[in-house]
User: What shape does this take?
Amino acid sequence: MRAEIIAVGSELLTPDRTDTNSLFLTSELNKLGIEVVHKTIVGDSEPDLREAFAQAFERADVIVSSGGLGPTEDDVTREALSDLLGRKLESNLEVLRAIQERFARMGRQMAEVNKRQAMVPEGAIPLENLRGTAPGLWIEARERVAILLPGPPDELQAMFARQVAERLARRSGGMRQFSRQLRTTGMAESDLDERIKAIYLPLKDVTTTILAGGGEIQIHLRTWNKDSHSANQLLDEVAGRINMALGDFVFSDNGLPLEEIVAEALNKHNATLSTAESCTGGLIAERLTSIPGSSSYFLGGVVSYSNELKTAWADVPTELIESKGAVSAEVAIALAEGIRRSTGSSLGIGITGIAGPSGGTPEKPVGLVHIALADGKETRERPVRFMGDRNRIRWSASQAALDMVRRHFLNGDRAQKLGKS
Amino acid sequence: MRAEIIAVGSELLTPDRTDTNSLFLTSELNKLGIEVVHKTIVGDSEPDLREAFAQAFERADVIVSSGGLGPTEDDVTREALSDLLGRKLESNLEVLRAIQERFARMGRQMAEVNKRQAMVPEGAIPLENLRGTAPGLWIEARERVAILLPGPPDELQAMFARQVAERLARRSGGMRQFSRQLRTTGMAESDLDERIKAIYLPLKDVTTTILAGGGEIQIHLRTWNKDSHSANQLLDEVAGRINMALGDFVFSDNGLPLEEIVAEALNKHNATLSTAESCTGGLIAERLTSIPGSSSYFLGGVVSYSNELKTAWADVPTELIESKGAVSAEVAIALAEGIRRSTGSSLGIGITGIAGPSGGTPEKPVGLVHIALADGKETRERPVRFMGDRNRIRWSASQAALDMVRRHFLNGDRAQKLGKS
Assistant: This one.
């Protein structure tokens, strides 16, 4: 079954607000095996709403709207749909009584205007609202079902859970969605696609989405099935083949972000980490400590913006900074080794670069970042050139640094498997 | 003029993501006097996209799409629109060269698949992408204009600013939006509303939106006019009255975020800052260094997660940590004073607290944070209790710490005006 979600409200067409109810609704519909194929956001205008419903009836089996069921004149969702379907609106005594009782419980009298909320189109089923005055509506027509829900998220969610989910499950007949998420870093989108398109393009039962951004590329696989065993088998097989094709570039096959993968690896190996950051300004430390319990693997870090503090906190020799420049492989290495020594951690990260927008030169352009990882035995260093604005360069650099830590353990784990360590 | 925004991408129809580019686009279109009347979110399916564009051409003068311009097979926005308009897609040599040059600059070879991005429909104007490989497109047809932009927000925003805004302004003729944005911190939403509702409720020509979140409350004022003088006069008057009613709680009346306001104050007073963070894990340093040119006021900071590093880096006496506990007013003060001394900055921030979710006790619950600011003469300390999850507590704490720096200079500036310093 295919669904369309219509979010109603002129405030959703301003720069300050947008629809978010559809995230909850999509999650719930997907669980019932119903795919969302279209979302529409429309103002409180009767002709616009009528058109939106008419088009939704053309392309979806289930139409869910949120908002526009309030008591005031500007709420016209009910009217627009009744008009479209040629169903008369009639006052429903039971609904009216429920609204009156709700006001009575709050010690207030029902305003005349609230009577509009008791209007129900012929043949529709009113859905009780336990958290507000606006009842919802379930309307079957043209072999479709339209479900009108109130806009406030808590009212909408409670109504969906209590009065919509089960009714919809009966219509959708056991179909459910299953999914996998692979996350990769260090690879360009086009290279990644070259490697895996032969795997996912021929698939008929699996929807593949490739998402690039934030220094990583995600691959989302989704399938619908009545039988969880065959769905999971199919997804495991596809995910396995993609994993194989991409190798070490995949950092997560369970949806976890890179900092959590790094945290897991550090904890697993009883290792600790410290950071000496310059261009990333504390972002790596911030990401590593955003995880509950981070004190088990993160001892501390310094943001040594000035050259003096690079020397004071991470023991970087003044002569080295003078001869090689603050942004250099040598200083990154000295930062990593220095912070590891001074904190006593097992691993030390050193990072220095030019985040821009100014400060670049032909030899050391904006976006050039040196990242080093010291483990007491050896220190690896990687120069990388990132594109984009200051924030994107900083984020990409933090991603590359965390990935060096992940790969450090990856090599260790592999060597172990081969009996080499 | 009426606009429709089409967000393209199957990932936007999942429970994980929804379109947010439309918030930026709406804001920019509104500034040009163009109202957004409809938003559509559609997957990467050529027939669905063709239908979405067809319907948008029926109801809007300007159609702006985001996404679906990538190099891979699943990106079909270009193809869908060309097909709908009956325009042939042709490889554009200039665009191809720009993409090749971009790859060359990164020291890589262009993948075969990227050639698709150089396909331009007959009569369309390609829009250069300075931040990515996907060019945008400007297509005039049926007395409408369709503007195809890439999905990544930084690429979309840069392209709109440089290549779309002016072209659209020429079409839209005269009417423009004017706005003011006041940002406050340290006040509850209900208290704020009590103080200002008598000002904004009676206004007919100004739309007021109050937005709470991220440790602050924003007040957005908007009006539309062909005449900039009367629009600005009206907004200045309203913003002035609100500013007066809220006093020191307003940190910004030009939309700038708190870290930029703090940066301005530090630069203005030739002051420098250093940070010793525990619970915020580098977030304050990260925010302060997210601003270009931050090395003029930010010397450096430490993230001293372990007690040993609090002593090593910020001179906090071991006995103090043992007797008062790491989360205490005394340790926050020692961190602030110690980091100021060791870096030689004019101001030092010390912060320690319990970000949770575990680690709380009845006396020191999750969300308790001690923040101290030292200036060499005196050190102020504030205990604050924040609500919410780990991320919200950390963000609110960073907001409160930056606000202490802002207020430090506020008092100085006021005393100066009164001739006291």
Observations:
- Chain B touches chain A through 88 residues (CB under 8 Å).
